[in-house]
Amino acid sequence: MDRSLFSVNCSIIFTELPLLERPRAAKDAGFSAVEFWWPFVSATPSLSDVDGFVAALREADVALSGLNFFAGDMPAGERGILSSPARDEEFYGNVAVVRDVADATGCRVFNALYGNRLDGESPERQDAVALERLATLADFTDATGSVVVLEPLSAVSTYPLLSADDAIAVITKLRATGATTTVKLLADLYHLAVNGENVAQVITESASDLGHVQIADAPGRNEPGTGELPIAEWLDQLWSAGYDGRIGLEYRPSTTSLESFDWLTTSQ
User: Fold this and answer.
1) Residue 228 a catalytic site member
2) I need a surface site. Which of 122, 134, 220, 261 has the fewest CB within 10 A?
3) At 208, which CATH number?
4) Where does 51-193 show beta strands of DSSP type E?
């Protein structure tokens, strides 16, 4: 398959290399685009850290096709702060940094992980906070021509967005408020599949709501061909349905990072 159709998620692939060396590794492997989870420790990294990240992309001559907003302490189990009432300062400080990255790189897809349900906070309160914050991102998406995506996840029992319908329900509620923020679905086909979704049906019914797509095989969350998912069929279905964004390779290589791309050659 044409590698220009894909982006390498450098937060999960090429982890044997320092983070700023990974864009060059992706370029050397034949890819023209990369994506990242939030690549900094804090929501508001120093200007020099941001400049270093942008410089690594430019020097590698790769596009940044997707970036997560700050998601909290992911190794400790956090999965976003969008719905966390106490995280206002971090959230809005992070939006300003993301805007700078968008301006510097031309990236136009930004993943706002919803956040886990919190003890001591009602789901209704968290959902209201998430809608309010998404509404305030209208200036961001309008000014940058970008899209904010919401992602259903698997394997986190306290994360409330498990299905495509869960994410689309949030988007529908946001639109009902009159907010003009451009928000769409991030369809990670791995997460949807292991959560029991009919992925082919999701693609058919949600094609117009897709803001980004990511893939990994299951079981194992490794590269396509290592598990049981009909990923090639789903990709054909996506392209037939008119999806024209890149496909994010967000898997853990089962061998080496470079060898994990062999399926792209054998799938031609």
Assistant:
1) no
2) 122
3) 3.20.20.150
4) 63-68, 109-111, 147-150, 183-188
The answer to whether the pTM exceeds 0.85 is: yes
The C-alpha atoms of residue 14 and residue 16 are separated, in whole angstroms, by 5
148: nearest Cα among 179, 117, 184, 173: 184
pLDDT in tens, the chain (268 residues): 999 999 999 999 999 999 999 999 999 999 999 999 999 999 999 999 999 999 999 999 999 999 999 999 999 999 999 999 999 999 999 999 999 999 999 999 999 999 999 999 999 999 999 999 999 999 999 999 999 999 999 999 999 999 999 999 999 999 999 999 999 999 999 999 999 999 999 999 999 999 999 999 999 999 999 999 999 999 999 999 999 999 999 999 999 999 999 999 987 5
For residue 116, the enclosing domain spans: 3-266
**Six-digit token string for 16:** 């044997």
The tally of domains found in the chain comes to 1
Catalytic choice (78, 151, 197, 223): 151
**DSSP labels for 196-210?**
T--HHHHHHHHGGGE
- Residue type (1 letter), 220: G
Element (DSSP H or E) covering residue 131 = helix 123-136
Q: What is the chain's Cα-based Rg?
A: 18
- 151 is a catalytic site residue: yes
Strand partners, 34: 8, 64
